[in-house]
Amino acid sequence: MIKAVIFDLGNVLINFDHRIAAKRIFEFTDKSPSEIYNLFFDSGITAMFEEGRISAEDFFLKIKAMLNLKIDYQEFISIWNGIFFLTENNKEVYTIVKNLRNKYRIALLSNINVLHFDYLKKEFPVFDAFHCVITSFEVGARKPHPLIYAETLECLNVASPAEAFYTDDRQELIEKAKELGINSAVFRDAKQLRQDLEQAGVNIN
């Protein structure tokens, strides 16, 4: 029986696109938008930042040096955080979360850095719906590392991974969760999520 539900954040509850930042940064560097995008989205330096192994200031200084940026820290933060937006699909997922909250333990599990997290808490009021908010920069590990899943299950206080359902838009992260025994489904949209939850035995009404 499912007793807890775990949601990813990015492109599930809040959409984002690093290309928005890459296009804006392009004005202040001699690097191409694709080079900037690759550095922002999934590079070693971004991984370090999302695992809390470097500070926001150090991250900026490393990015500034790597891209030969001609902007200051505050200008960078504005661009770095300006990648998020809400869709109708996001809003439907949030409604699902709110409906589940009184019947199940609910967790948010995200690979995220401190700058994005602090910004989203101020600008996007979705975090109130969750009993647990687990972030990579606080845990010191990113999905798909088993540690961050274990931290989430512990916060949810489930007896076994099989008592939790997890949705994420990235297939490889879902596969790791399945290996750990968590009921999991790739997020496509709110309609598909409802079907996946019902199939797992979750009461969404």
Number of helices: 11
- Termini separation (Å)? 17 Å
What is the class of the largest domain in the CATH system?
Answer: Alpha Beta
CATH superfamily of the largest domain: HAD superfamily/HAD-like
Structural class: alpha/beta
Low-confidence segments: none
Work out the number of β strands: 7
Strand content: 5-15%
Shape: elongated
Mean pLDDT: 96
For the report, how would you describe the main beta sheet? 5 strands, parallel
What's the domain count? 2
The ordered string of helix (H) and strand (E) elements is EEHHHHHEHEHEHHEHEH
Strand order of the largest sheet: 5-4-1-6-7
At the fold tier of CATH, the topology name of the largest domain is: Rossmann fold
What value does the Rg take, in angstroms? 18 Å
So, CATH architecture of the largest domain?
Answer: 3-Layer(aba) Sandwich
Fraction of helical residues: 40-55%
